[in-house]
Amino acid sequence: MSVKTVQATINGQTYDLALNNTTGKYEASVTAPSKSSYTLDGHYYNVKITAVDDAGNSTVKDASDAALGAKLRLIVQEKVAPVATVTAPTANALITNSTPVITWTITDNDSGVNPDTISLTIDNNTPVTSGITKTATSNGYNCSYTITSALDDGIHTIRLAAADFDGNAAAASSSTFTIDTVPPTLSVTTPAVGFITNKISCLVSGTTSDVTSGLASLTIKVNSGIAQEAEVIDGNFSKEVTLADGKNTITIQATDVAGKITVVSREVTLDTIPPVFGDIVITPNPVPTGTIFKITVNVTDA
């Protein structure tokens, strides 16, 4: 008697093995399953070999066989790496919190994300592996990490790392954001504190700047009126405003792109009413030459 057929069954598919007359062995070239074996029980595909002779006798071996089972465990590894994506802060975000919460996702649709490989690097510091919250999803993890040491104002870069259970490392993923916790500088040159004038027009001038995010606007408001925007050129500003009779509060507000605000106020009094004389008395009058006399003036000013 002789062997009639030899077949291999893998992942529900059956393949015929042909006799190699040179080696005397049965062979077949088989395309591996399209999915990783990591998610399967034991992390392998069971390979079942069935041999049938001309008389109809058959022998079956698979991964459970005591002698040959270890050789019938097909390990298939995926070739697609996980995908890492930063969700917050978003790319080029401008934030005012120096200890932000970093959130990101790691996804892999085959062998799955190995949570032990998830890490986060901020700027060029040592990768962070502890303190990361990892919430499992259907195809990976939602991750978050709260920065514990305040970051300096300026630009920062987040870099993510992770791998799947088949050892494929996620492609480099990074995101850049800017922290701005310092409000703009604002110095008012004119008017001076407590300035009193008889002119209805008043010049408001000074300097302002914001190093980190840049200046967004500078507005000037008199009393409860509408704030007027003033042009800033090379850090300098000047604008004429109209005063009301009596005390005026001039509010100058500088706002940077991050929304941080600096406010300076000046109290200015407009007085357009001249003094009023009531009575003037010269005593004595007439007065002898070379003699001291006294002038008494009754004058008021509203």
From TrEMBL:
Transmembrane parts of this sequence: none
InterPro entries according to UniProt: Big_13, Ig-like_fold
Ranges for domain Bacterial Ig-like: 93-181
Pfam families linked: Big_13 (PF19077), Glucodextran_B (PF09136)
Name of this protein: Bacterial Ig-like domain-containing protein
Lineage: Bacteria, Bacillati, Bacillota, Clostridia, Lachnospirales
